[in-house]
Amino acid sequence: MGYDIERFVGYVNEGLLCSICRDVLEDPLQAPCEHAFCTACIHGWLVHHSNCPEDRQVIDVALLRPLYRYMKNDLNRLQLHCRNREYGCEMVCSLESIDRHERECEYSQIPCSNAGCSVQVERRNLDGHLAVCEYRSRECPNGCGYTILSAEDTQHNCVAELRTELELLRSEMICRVEEAKHEMESRLDSQRRHMVQKESILQNEIEELKSQMSRMMSDVRSLMAAERQHRQELEQAELEKREL
């Protein structure tokens, strides 16, 4: 939908009106036949039709183009009243800057920022409303540090709130201790498994060394026996030599 033509100051050229809603173009698009439409209007029209609503020429979304620059400039220069005129805003500005003004307009109706409050007030009156809003929050004046809503003043009990806070802290502490305990147990189990694995590896290495030592002792005994045999053969040969 376009901008309500009643908001504009002075004459508005017919070419700057949407061919569908007949209001001043908002976010305009132009068909090949040069008829202009609000983007929302023409997209809604083409859901059920395939032609221009003015001259019935066939058009498609892909054929729509931005408005000619000179027409866009004429559109942006139009002067109109702020939409908050009914609330007291007397601002008149160009269409090009109206959105920026209305986002910051002191007469805009905005919701209260307090959770649970459904009241809408003018931006300029927001601070005054927040000062008396029944959903406003503040710190307990008795010093317990608890944040309370004005509507809860009569029900607030410092001792009860502190006890609740203490219970929450105790529960949180217990949870943290349990988490730390489980983490330590997990680490100990991991280290225990690692030590058992290392012990097994070392035991295997020791057995291998024992086996190697046993083979070496057997080889030494064999060498000593061979040496004795060789010495005996030498002595026998020496005796035979002397006899000869």
Automatic annotation (TrEMBL):
Residues 18-56 form the RING-type domain. One of its GO terms (molecular function) is zinc ion binding. Residues 192-243 form a coiled coil. InterPro entries: Znf_RING (IPR001841), Znf_RING/FYVE/PHD (IPR013083), Znf_RING_CS (IPR017907), Znf_TRAF (IPR001293). This is RNF41 ligase. The keyword Coiled coil applies. The gene is Rnf41. Residues 101-144 form the TRAF-type domain. GO terms for biological process: regulation of canonical NF-kappaB signal transduction. A zinc finger (TRAF-type) spans 101-144. Keywords: Coiled coil, Ligase, Metal-binding, Zinc, Zinc-finger.
